[in-house]
Write a structure and sequence with these properties.
Strand order of the largest sheet: 8-14-13-10-11
Bound molecules: calcium ion
Radius of gyration: 35 Å
Pfam families: Big_3_3
Mean pLDDT: 96
Strand content: over 45%
Number of strands: 21
Domain Ig-like: 144-197
Largest sheet: 5 strands, mixed
Number of helices: 0
CATH architecture of the largest domain: Sandwich
CATH class of the largest domain: Mainly Beta
CATH superfamily of the largest domain: Immunoglobulins
Organism: marine metagenome
Protein name: Ig-like domain-containing protein
Length: 272
């Protein structure tokens, strides 16, 4: 606490603090005792604000001269030793995302200044782009609606929250952006092929962020959705122009059949 306590015939000064903006006379407490040395635009006291609860306080400086005249000056201050509350709920760490992504979280403080959301490429970005900034407190709600169009690969989101005393609280979050649907292709058999015996089904089921593929068959040329039956189960290994399945055609009656390949990526995009 910096100030001036002087007089040509200086006697002493006293610095006091009290709860609230309008304390009663009896509420004032000295910060240390009475000082007998004048101070001119210099440190009057050190006040350890962590020894009191956060809130509004009054400060009062009383300077007395030898004849007993007293000059008083007052200040109101807000003490805030509590850092902002920050939670980034969504997206989660290493989550796969695409198209529109709702960034959801909590940014709160009694003396809230604001938050901003930034974006950088890779897991340790060298530069950041500010997506949004706001002075509005958020409680488990949307911070920003992020449009990932045109982006692909790993990115880092940074949520920065500030109050008026504690600097910045930062949360970093790595996400994988995948706006490319999987590749799904059946090359053998060709459409309307006539086949027999043990049929090798050849094709491609790939994606940069591949999850799985499923090969299905059904009776007839235009099966209902409920008619599709898997040929074996789900495969979690991508196939690039190679055997997807072996289909023992002798286990089915002669006739027309449909085949369907469904490839899913990590973000849940499906190509059929
Ligand atoms: Ca605070
Ligand atoms: Ca993909």
């Amino acid at each position: 606490i910096v100030g001036t306590a002087t007089d040509s015939y200086f006697d002493s000064y006293l610095l006091q603090q009290a709860n609230g903006a309008n304390p009663e006379e009896s509420d004032w407490q000295p910060i240390e005792g009475v000082s007998a040395t004048p101070v001119n635009s210099s440190t009057l006291r050190q006040f350890a604000t962590t020894t009191v609860a956060d809130g509004i306080y009054s400060l009062r400086l009383r300077v007395t001269d030898k004849v007993g005249q007293i000059t008083t000056v007052r200040r109101t201050i807000t003490i805030d030793n509590t850092p902002p509350k920050v939670t980034l709920q969504s997206p989660t760490q290493n989550q796969y995302v695409n198209s529109q992504v709702a960034i959801i979280g909590t940014t709160d403080d009694k003396n809230f200044k604001g938050y901003r959301v930034e974006l950088g490429a890779g897991d340790k970005p060298e530069s950041w782009e500010v997506l949004t900034q706001s002075a509005t407190i958020r409680q488990s709600e949307g911070l920003y609606n992020w449009d990932t169009s045109g982006l692909e690969g790993q990115y880092t989101l940074k949520l920065v929250v500030e109050d008026f005393t504690n600097g910045q609280v930062v949360v970093n979050r790595q996400v994988m952006v995948d706006n490319t649907p999987p590749q799904a292709q059946i090359t053998v058999p060709e459409t309307d092929a006539i086949v027999s015996g043990n049929l090798k089904i050849v094709g491609t089921a790939t994606d940069s962020y591949f999850d799985s593929y499923l090969l299905q068959q059904a009776d007839g040329a235009n099966p209902e959705e409920g008619d599709w039956q898997p040929i074996e189960g789900v495969s979690i290994t991508p196939v690039n122009n190679d055997t997807l399945r072996q289909f023992a055609t002798t286990t089915a009656a002669d006739g027309i059949y449909s085949l369907r390949l469904r490839v899913t990526d990590k973000v849940g995009q499906i190509t059929t």
